[in-house]
Design goal:
There is one protein chain. With 195 residues, the chain is mainly β. 12% of the residues lie in helices and 44% in strands. The chain is built from 2 helices and 14 strands. The chain has a 12-stranded antiparallel barrel with strand order 1-2-3-4-5-6-7-8-9-10-11-14. The protein has a two-stranded antiparallel ribbon with strand order 12-13. A hairpin with a 4-residue loop joins strand 6 and strand 7. The longest helix has 17 residues, at 177-193. InterPro entries: LOR_sf (IPR038595), Scramblase (IPR005552), Tubby-like_C (IPR025659).
C-alpha cells in the first residue's frame, strides 16, 4: 500500500463542468495544498454517458481509478448497473479485491455497510439527511468522517459545494486495507448517495 494512504487528512475537490458525464476528482493534502491523488473515471461507454444526463444517472455503472500524482494506480472502485441499491467493489493496485460496499435500504442520509474481501463488516458509513456530514464507525467507535467543514491550522475552512474533507482517526492502523476502503467509500458518497 502506498504511504500516501497513511495520511489522516484529505481534501477532495471535484472537477466542475457544465456537460460532463464522468466523475473526476483531485485529492489534496490540505496543509500543503498539493495534489497527492487523482481520481478519474475513464473509458465511459456511449450509453453510460448518455444516461448520465438523465434521471437514471444514479443507476449507471462506474469505474473510478484512484492514482498517486505520479500516475501509479492505487485503488479501483467499480459498480455495475444499480436498480434499487448499490453494491460496489474495491480493488487494490493489482486488481485484487479489497472489499465491498452494500447500500442499505431506507436509510435517511444514506448508509453503506463496508465489508472486507471475506464479507466481514469493517465499518459502517452513515450520513445525515440534512447535509454533507458522514461518519465511518465500527463497533461504536468513529474511524473517520467526511464533512464540508474543516477546522485546522487555527482557522475554519468552509469548502464549496464540490469540495469536502476526509479526516481519518489516528486509531485506524497505517497500511490497513481499512484506509483504502474508507477513501474508496468517499468517492461513492458523491456518486451513489448525493447525485
Amino acid at each position: 500500500m502506498s504511504p500516501i494512504l497513511n495520511q489522516n487528512l484529505f481534501l477532495v475537490k471535484e472537477h466542475v463542468g457544465m456537460f460532463k458525464a464522468s466523475n473526476n476528482y483531485d485529492i489534496y493534502n490540505p496543509e500543503s495544498n498539493q495534489i497527492i491523488l487523482n481520481c478519474r473515471e475513464n473509458n465511459l461507454g456511449f450509453f453510460t454517458k448518455m444516461l448520465r444526463f438523465t434521471d437514471y444517472k444514479r443507476m449507471t455503472p462506474f469505474n473510478v481509478e484512484i492514482a498517486a500524482a505520479s500516475g501509479e494506480k492505487l485503488i479501483s472502485v467499480k459498480r455495475g448497473i444499480a436498480v434499487f441499491r448499490s453494491n460496489v467493489e474495491v480493488f487494490d493496485e493489482k486488481e485484487r479485491l479489497i472489499g465491498t460496499f452494500k447500500q442499505k435500504f431506507f436509510s435517511f442520509g444514506g448508509k453503506f455497510e463496508i465489508l472486507d474481501k471475506n464479507e466481514k463488516p469493517v465499518a459502517t458509513l452513515q450520513g445525515k439527511w440534512t447535509g454533507w456530514d458522514f461518519k465511518f464507525t465500527h463497533e461504536n467507535k468513529q474511524l473517520a468522517q467526511v464533512s464540508k467543514k474543516w477546522a485546522g491550522m487555527g482557522k475554519e475552512l468552509f469548502t464549496s459545494a464540490d469540495n469536502y474533507v476526509l479526516q481519518i482517526e489516528e486509531t485506524v492502523a497505517q497500511d490497513s486495507p481499512q484506509r483504502q476502503l474508507i477513501l474508496a467509500a468517499v468517492m461513492c458518497i458523491d456518486m451513489v448517495l448525493k447525485e
